[in-house]
Write a structure and sequence with these properties.
Layout lengths: L11 H5 L5 H11 L3 H19 L9 H10 L17 H56 L5 E6 L5 E7 L4 E7 L8 E9 L2 E8 L3 E4 L9 E8 L12 E4 L3
Antiparallel strand pairs: 1-2, 2-3, 3-6, 4-5, 4-7, 7-8
Helix pairs in contact: 4-5
Length: 250
């Protein structure tokens, strides 16, 4: 990546991802000593990357071991097999012979329980792997935008006090929105992003919490990005005054 000195503020995302060459890393490290805004931005990018990476970890469900142990404890075990000489048939012998089908039934119940748990564990593992792949793909996309050679960055502050950063890449036609200090929305409300095309605001995704999200839509043709507070589930068009409007980076 090559950037002019005047663009050094735009290197925060690439610096957080270790995507700069040696010279750029040294220059930006020195710049951080005297630029509080960039130090704050790098810290936020580091935190976002860590949260996304942690989400790819795969662990078996915490309750699986407890469910298995509880199921086993509730199944009657087979009695020990003793080799004794045959005795005259009587009520006791008939009772012992009747215990064999009960032991077999208990074994079948145990096998069925364990088989059901195995199937459920397999399904949960598949679901976890799928979610991990989706998170990893999202992380790769966000990283690609932040580290793109043509990445452009703009900053702003929303009406509710949140700090916002918009990073775009023309070559990738993708944009990343990062929010810091975003207050939790009221019940039944959600933050929604918008891309302005020819004077019309079009839905561009949601912001659930502090961190970074990939902007939906076509940022290359947009002139601005807006943030509003909408009813839960979103709206086809803004229903409230924008909390923030950022011009797309040149």
């Amino acid at each position: 990546m090559k950037h002019h000195a005047s663009d050094i503020h735009t290197l925060a995302g690439a610096y957080a991802l270790d995507a700069l060459d040696t010279g750029e890393t040294g220059a930006f490290t020195r710049h951080l000593d005297r630029c509080e805004a960039c130090r704050h931005e790098v810290a936020e990018f580091h935190a976002t990357t860590a949260r996304l990476a942690a989400a790819t970890a795969q662990e078996p469900p915490a309750a699986l071991k407890r469910r298995t142990l509880d199921a086993v404890d509730g199944v009657r075990q087979l009695p020990p097999r003793l080799h004794a000489p045959p005795t005259a048939a009587g009520p006791g012998a008939r009772l012992r012979r009747g215990a064999l089908p009960l032991g077999l039934a208990a074994s079948l119940v145990t096998a069925a329980v364990l088989a059901g748990l195995a199937v459920r564990q397999h399904q949960e593992a598949d679901r976890a792997r799928q979610e991990a792949r989706q998170v990893q793909q999202s992380l790769d996309t966000l990283s690609g935008v932040l580290a793109a050679p043509d990445a452009g960055t703009v900053h702003g502050r929303a009406a509710n006090g949140a700090l916002a950063t918009l990073v775009t890449s023309s070559s990738r036609n993708e944009a990343v929105f990062t929010a810091t200090g975003l207050p939790a929305p009221a019940p039944g409300k959600t933050y929604q992003l918008w891309l302005q095309h020819d004077g019309t605001m079009r839905p561009a995704g949601f912001v659930r919490r502090d961190g970074s999200v990939l902007v939906d839509g076509d940022p290359a043709r947009a002139t601005a990005l807006g943030l509003t507070l909408e009813p839960s589930g979103g709206s086809p068009r803004p229903t409230t005054a924008p909390l923030l409007v950022l011009r797309m980076p040149a």
